[in-house]
Queue: 2 jobs
Job 1
Amino acid sequence: MDFEEHTQQQPQQDDNHDAEDVARAESENHAEDFAALLAESFDYQPPRRGEIRQATILQIEPNEIIVDMGAKQDGLVTTQDLERLDPDFRASLQVGQQVPVYVLNPRDSEGNLIVSINMGLQQHDWDAARALLEKDEAVEVTVTGHNRGGVLVNWRRLEGFIPASHMVSVRAGLQGHERRDAFNALIGKRIGVKVIEVDQDRRRLIFSEREAQREWRAQQKARLLAELNEGDIVRGVVTGLRDFGAFVNLGGADGLIHVSELAWHRVDHPRDVLKVGEEIEVYVLSLDREANRIALSRKRLLPDPWDTALERYYEGMLVEGTVTNVVDFGAFIALDDGLEGLLHLSEMGDGSLKEPYSYVKKGDRLKLRISRLEPEQRRVGFTQRWGIEETEADRERAAQQAGEPGEEVGGAEEQLVEAEAEPPAPEAASAAEIEAEVAPPSEEADEA
């Protein structure tokens, strides 16, 4: 064979080798595909009743929807299921859209695979409800009705229930038509709640408005604490009265006015100066951002009666005050402007009393005279032994303070002393009594 014949046969041999390679590769690919199909046939799980699968919408008809759910047979969504869907959601469905479907019947009498989009969506909602329960998060629900135990609500596509004991919008203790009217007023309204129980098998979804309200208040208080500053003056509504003080809502969170910060005079109980529902201005005393506490004051916004005490009062002046507390050694008296001092037992009546309880009680209005006035020490003493009948000196001094024309009254105190008999010296007071007279009224005096 010469060179020319060899070169002519060489390409032909190469083509033969290429064809063999292609055939070999195709055979190998077919083998791999067959193996894959065989493996898939073993892995394939037919749809089971109650199963949730993701499906792709293939066809939308007025009375049914066909979906591809990765099975050997397409799924059928029936008219009954479509009618249960929200109209807006149903109108938004498109070919190619993925939706969750619930397998109702893997094979009906006609051999169809029946699935439900509505129940598939509900399954997602049950999963979301369990997630809310685990995360302890709040959501909003719509009230749809009520029964003897509480209110019925809708959340997404699920029906839920709020027990009456977990309601905040309806006041506890209501009975009969009042309770029914309160529940009826909630229908159609949205309220914040937390999930407290999820039982899909029993289709039981329980919410609590009380738990959500507690968290909401904590969030509001944290927000207020971030915005408020000590020294701010804000408005609020009195929400509760306790022995130790008053709670004031500042717009979603409560602050506390301690009983000692309610007024300049002694306050035995907050109800003596405030009532629930009253709107007041308060002064921000302190903020504890770690403990989420807001301390408020009412008296800081009221005039301090001690600042102008010498302008309005003098020793020997006849005044009228209210008994705020009775102790073994006397009674504390508050004047109408908040100035408060002690009427010692030895200065009551004619000075012969052995105990004060049979003579005065809390709330009594008494006429008495100022026996000692020391604004620098915030101290005032009272007496009834100098006489409690109004004298000409009292009237002239009152007219002079009011700015009315009249004769000069020099030394009204001296005239008063001359008009009245010299009071006998009081009996020696105990150390506790002296301390109570010297110190401004406080809770310690109550305890004494």
Note: DSSP finds eleven helices and 20 strands in the chain.
Job 2
Amino acid sequence: MVLSALSFSLMVVGVKQVGDRLPIAEVVLARALVSLALSYWMARRIGVDPWGRRRGLLVLRGLVGSAALFCVYAAVVHLPLAAATVLQYLYPTFTALLAWLFLGERLGRRVLLAMGLGWLGVLLVAQPTASSALPTPWVLVAVAGALLTAVAYVSVRRLAESEPAAVIIFYFPLVAVPMSLPLLLIDPVLPTPIELLWLVGVGVFTQVGQVGLTQALTQLPAARATAISYVQVGFAALWGWWIFGESVDLPTAIGAALILVATLICLGQRPGVAKAGESTQQTLLR
């Protein structure tokens, strides 16, 4: 999960580098094409049928994940990075609640404490601007992205019961390509060679992050795994200082420390899944 967070933080750097000039659909399509090729190769290399068995739920996971991707990328481009980061990190709370409702996963005290510390750390690191100063439509898009991300993560937990990780990963770009292509045709922009390299980097870092994320969600309860992902904000602060020349002040340092503590608390929590009512919840998810 930590490797996934590092990779996704580098992906966001790439999106920021090209998002001001290239359409969001073009960034999504580039990411999806790279991920599609790598995912298919990975599935074949390990001898797994990439088409899976529960194709309806796999397509639904791809649709929800792709919609979340559009929202997240749009928020990163149209909102200050700090505000977009905070709004996106609503998803661990959404994930924990959805996992409790539909997967029967217990919200243990340690996980709740880790979520609280992680959320406080996110606020300190990102230091969001006043909500009244942000454009409301893009704030709503960012919140929608966080909610859709949570839905996608919970669906991964359910799919992991019957599908290999390689299949789950493959369906994400498989659905994202046809979703983004029509939008791209409306306003295509030819990328420069440097932008093309960034687009490839977005796809590669996405693939590494997706592999780590999917593997983590097949082994950990969804609430615990996503709470660990708070460490991505610490990585974002590092890239902001190193690449974009943003200073690291005292609140940022304290926030990063809280995120680290939250991660250590999650690593020390024994996973547990409540079985009561699970059959009803499984039916709802299917």
Note: Residues 2-285 form one domain.
